[in-house]
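Hey team,

Filing this mostly as a record. A colleague (T.K.) asked me to run one chain through the structure pipeline before their review meeting, and I want the input and output archived in the tracker in case anyone asks later how it was produced. No errors, nothing strange. Just documentation.

Input sequence:
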Amino acid sequence: MSLKRARWLLNLDKHAVNDILDTLVEAGPEGTLTAAQFTNAMLLLVRLGGNLDSRTSDYEEASSLLGRLFDAFDEDGVGVVNLSLLTSGLSTLCDVPMSEKISFAFTVYDQDGDGLVSLSELVDYMTSVFNVLFVTSTDIKGMLEPGVSMSQLATATATQAFSEAGLSPRSKLDQASFTTFVQRGIGFM
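Output structure:
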């Protein structure tokens, strides 16, 4: 599978990031989603996008992809995922300019509105991006060393970003540093 195929299957090339967020928030207003809530909300977007008919093998492939995406975010296996993590990860599949994806992600993770993102918030963001990329792109997944988790990769990547910005782990990244890091590090989305 490729990122392009995943976008098409889920019709995320037909919806704005905020529309996806609104649909998922409506499905899980408490900030979490069960597998059924996620699947029903996403299949609504699939149907609204108009790419797929529910009687086709492509629709079945989209349903299967949704299950794999949910499982990637349900790391502890309790059947519930964090809405913020899920939506920031899914934003990588949206067919919008990189600057819009970065701005959306920064807003999601700048929870206190101070214009800064902490190391742990950047790790959360990177984990969500890697979760989606490794489910949707076998080429990218093949680059990962065996036994390395998405969280471990995200921690190493985020720590590198802070180091390159000359920041200690207790510091925070401003939006310009966050944008520079994301554009340089994951510009293939």
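Quick notes for T.K.: The radius of gyration is 16 Å. The chain has a mean pLDDT of 83.
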